[in-house]
Amino acid sequence: MNKAVDLLRQSAIFYLATMDGDQPRVRPFGAVADIDDKLYFATNNTKACYQQMIANPNVEISGMLGEDKWYRICGTVINDPRFDAKCEFLKQVPIPMYTADDGIFEVFYFEKATVTVSSFEGEMEKFEIS
Prior knowledge:
Helices cover about 20% and strands about 50% of the residues. The chain is an alpha+beta fold. The protein has one domain: Electron Transport, Fmn-binding Protein, Chain A (Pnp Oxidase, Chain A), CATH 2.30.110. Strands 1, 2, 3, 4, 5, 6, 7 and 8 form an eight-stranded antiparallel β-sheet that branches.
């Protein structure tokens, strides 16, 4: 399994930061999938975060691993409009309010990113995903 996907699944809830003009916006997410060995997450195209990622695809994700470790995933995301990608996402992570052809469900993947795992003692691990 994709190591970055595993990190996000360990924390259950992770936080996605986007830019709204010059103002950062952060919101909780929980659904993540491994499609073609890429880290995918989902939203819908009626939400502000969708428009923000289309306008500026540079994002950062952060989450906790227990009480004393955390991770950051900083990189560029790409919207994947393929029906097959949406179907696979929903197969891995059923979300009852969406279907792959509902016109609003969207999936994004990290084109390139740096993953850093840290603790109070410092950086523990750093790797790239693409």
